[in-house]
Amino acid sequence: MDFYQVLEKRRTIRDFSDKEVTDEVLEKVLSAAFKAPTNDHLRQFEFVVVRDRENIARLISPVAENTQNIQQTGLETAADVMDKDEHAMFVDALPKQRRMLMQSNCLVLPFFRQKDCPLCHPANQSSLNYFASAWAAVENILLAATAEGLACAFRIPIGNEPEYVKQLVGAPNEYEFTCFLAIGYAAENAHICKQKDIRVEDRIHKNVW
Fold first, then answer.
1. 70 belongs to a structural domain
2. Could you report the per-residue pLDDT of 137-178, keeping only the tens digit for each?
3. Alpha-carbon distance 8 to 147, whole Å?
4. Which domain holds residue 151?
5. How many domains does the chain have?
6. The domain that contains 160 carries what CATH number?
């Protein structure tokens, strides 16, 4: 698949089929993370892969309650002022948060080593470089998965989810949990949210100073 076709085809899919992702394909996809730019040049990523649905259920046990109490409540409060495409996406996404992480039966937990400054408590703009490195790695995974014909959905942890996951898997203190990442094959009738239409020429500003 051409690189620009991959960019065009990459979408968040929250409805998965029962088809299993092989270890060979999964390793190929995750290896793409180590090709991403990284601030400290050390590429200190670690990935926990969970396939057993009973174990997945344990890892994501806070998700349903947090989705309802934090995200769903916030959506209802802000519904009247939200962009219509943004609102439509959340209406589809929020009820599927727990299900999508279970359904693919391939849950990946990316961890990134926090060097010098905690990722989630940056001291200044420069210390965000570590956070950017973690998400550059995740983006490479999303693109590689698309190139392999896979679908992905991720959930950025909220509330007590990061510490809960880190404690459950025994992650060292210096590693930060990035996101829940479901990787699988899209269901035949998978819903695809409308992307925001962007005129690129309207976002490029030349010689503005």
1. yes
2. 999 999 999 999 999 999 999 999 999 999 999 999 889 899
3. 11
4. 3-200
5. 1
6. 3.40.109.10
Summarised one tens digit per residue, pLDDT across range 53-84 is 999 999 999 999 999 999 999 999 988 999 99
pLDDT band at 30 (very low <50, low <70, confident <90, very high): very high
The answer to whether residue 208 is domain-embedded is no
The answer as to whether 205 is a domain residue is no
Rounded CA separation 3/147 (Å): 8
Is residue 166 within 8 A of residue 178, CB to CB? The reply is no
Q: How confident is the model at residue 113 (pLDDT cuts 50, 70, 90)?
A: confident
Residue 101 has pLDDT above 90, yes or no: yes
186 domain-assigned = yes
Q: Which residues of 166-197 are buried (b: 16+ CB within 10 A; e: fewer)?
A: beebebeeebbbbbbbbbbbbbeeeeebeeee
> Which residues lie closer than 8 Å to 116 by C-beta, 6 or more apart?
127, 130
Name the nearest CA neighbour of 108 among 31, 9, 167.
Answer: 31
User: Which comes out higher in pLDDT, residue 125 or 106?
Assistant: 106
